[in-house]
Structure formats: C-alpha cells, structure tokens
Amino acid sequence: MKSENSTIAYTATLQQPLNSGFGAASIAREVIAGIDLSGKVAIVTGGYSGIGVETVRVLCSAGARVIVPARDRAKANRTLDSIQDVEIWAMDLLDPDSIDGFADRFLATGLPLHILINSAGIMASPLMRDSRGYEAQFSTNHLGHFQLTSRLWPALVSANGARVVAVSSRGHRYSPVVFEDLQFQHREYDPFQAYGQSKTANILFAIELDKRGFAEGIRAFSVHPGGIVNTDLGRYSSKERLRKLGVIDENGQPVLDPLRQLKTIEQGASTGVWCATSPLLNGMGGVYCENNDIASILTNAVSLDSIGGADAKGNFGVLPHALDPQAAQCLWQVSEQLVMGGKFT
C-alpha cells in the first residue's frame, strides 16, 4: 500500500450532505440510471442475500461484470439464477485461507477491480467464534472484509479509479470499537454491542482505507442501507424484539417507512450503489452515507430500542465515535496484526 507514505496531500471529504437529488425512498435502479458500467469489474460480498441480490442485479444491468463470493454455492445459484452473467466463486469470510484463495484466483486473472462492495454480514448473533477464537460478528463483518480488501489491493490499484463500499449500519450507535476487549474475553457478551462494534469498525475502516488509497485512485465509503426486515440479517432476532424495535407490526409484517429508515430491499440497496457509481462523489471519499447522500454528524441520537418509533423519524446521521481518525488508524494496525501478524505487502 504505497500511498501510506505518499507525498500527495490528503484532504478529508467533509461529512455533510451534498443534496444529491435522491432520498430515503429512492431505489437502486433510479440512482444508477444513465450510468454505463461496461468494461467495469465488481465484486459484491453477500451478493446472494438481501440487498446484495438487488445490488448485483442493478450493477449487471448497467453492464458490469459482477463476481459474487459465496460460502453456500447452492443457495447462491438459486438466488441469482434470474440474473444473467453473474459469476459465483467460493469464499467464506470466516475462513482466512478461503479469503486468500478467492483473492489469489482473482489476481491471477489480471483483471482490474473497479468496485468492491463489502455487503455480507451477520447481526446480533449468539456468541460464536471463528477458528482463531475471534468473535464472529467482528470477524465476519470487519476482519474478513479487511483481509479481502487488502489482498485485492493490486487489482484495485490497476483500476485507476476504484471504489470500495463498506456496508455499515445505523447500529454503529450501539458501541464504539472497544480496543481493550475486541473479542469479548473480559466483558459480558451482548449481541447488539458486538454488532455495533463491528459496524463502527466498518465506518472507521472506510476512513483509513480512503486515506491510504487515495493517491492510487482508491476511494472508500461506508453506508447505512436502512432497516430491511425481510432479509437473512435478522435471523437471530426474535419477533418480540423486532416488534419492540418497531420494524414489524402485530401481524409480523414489515413496517415500511423510509423516513424512519424502514425500507424495501430495492430502497436498501440504493445507497451502496450510489456510493459505488455516482459521479457526484468523484474526488471524494472516507465518508458515511445514508439515504443516497453523505450523512450529517449526529450528536442527539434517539435510543435504538425504538428505531422504528415515531421519535426516530428524521433522526439520521453518524455519531462522532465512528469518525475518529485516530481510532481508524488504530483499528487498521490492530486488524493487520489480527489477520496477518504484521503488515500486508
């Protein structure tokens, strides 16, 4: 990652809205309209589930060559069967060797990588650990994507203008990154605090990645897609919990209200697609986006125990703990140590 010591001055993009012309109710097909991705190569993790499927669909419709890493090949084949020309390659974000194998296969093609959307994730799971003993949400949502992005670095550089999108969440409000106990070895495990830590990590990762990659044409963004209930992401949450959050009604049906971030899959996929393709973001990076725009900094967040409640309407934005450049640099260094025992080369 040569740009870490580059003499080119890096100027952080302001964390404030651009007035993009799109909003909370915009769908992915709308934000990509008129954009030609012919000749572009994209990788979308989680591309065979939830908003990932719609992301793959619209990128392919715009002409991109899209590769979807998949742990469950049979499920990926079923889910993506209706999308022409999408490629499915084996990879498991909890398995470092699998990530290396995927990256080696891609690099061997000699293809540039123009778009990398790190969309795969798990939410509020019971305490689980990977083979290294790392807590599973931090390992899947952050470390696996950190390793994948770092291993694909040469392909991102060769694109001469690449974008990396880290799919984060409003759930970053649950917790900062707790460097003193990342793996919940010395504190009681809380599924939502662990999720929040991993989602804050996604935001910090994009900040530091943008700083390190900009001189080589690599820009990074983090996004909150919105609350999309009818996906696999909520499989560990009970209906009682989801009703308390206000995201499903008394009949168990999803509540849809974009002004409270309660969205359809098509709406949820839009901000990631916007970050990956919008010409409005040329020359920008390192910012957290939601509702198809750069988000504001928020200092008066409502409780996430009522994210679907009336008090949540319009309560958008990113908390300051997820924008700390020192925390971003520290996370990068810790992630290198956890994944490789040292720096990537």
CATH architecture: 3-Layer(aba) Sandwich
Number of strands: 8
By CATH's scheme, which homologous superfamily applies? NAD(P)-binding Rossmann-like Domain
The total count of helices amounts to 11
Query: Any idea how many domains?
Result: 1
Task: Provide the succession of SSEs.
Answer: HEHEHEHEHHEHEHHHEEH
Question: Can you lay out the helices and strands and say which pair or pack?
Answer:
Layout: H1 28-31, E1 41-45, H2 51-61, E2 65-70, H3 73-79, E3 87-90, H4 96-109, E4 115-118, H5 136-151, H6 153-158, E5 162-167, H7 191-213, E6 218-224, H8 239-245, H9 265-268, H10 270-277, E7 287-290, E8 293-294, H11 325-340
Parallel strand pairs: 1-2, 1-4, 2-3, 4-5, 5-6, 6-7
Antiparallel strand pairs: 7-8
Helix pairs in contact: 4-5, 5-7, 5-11, 7-11
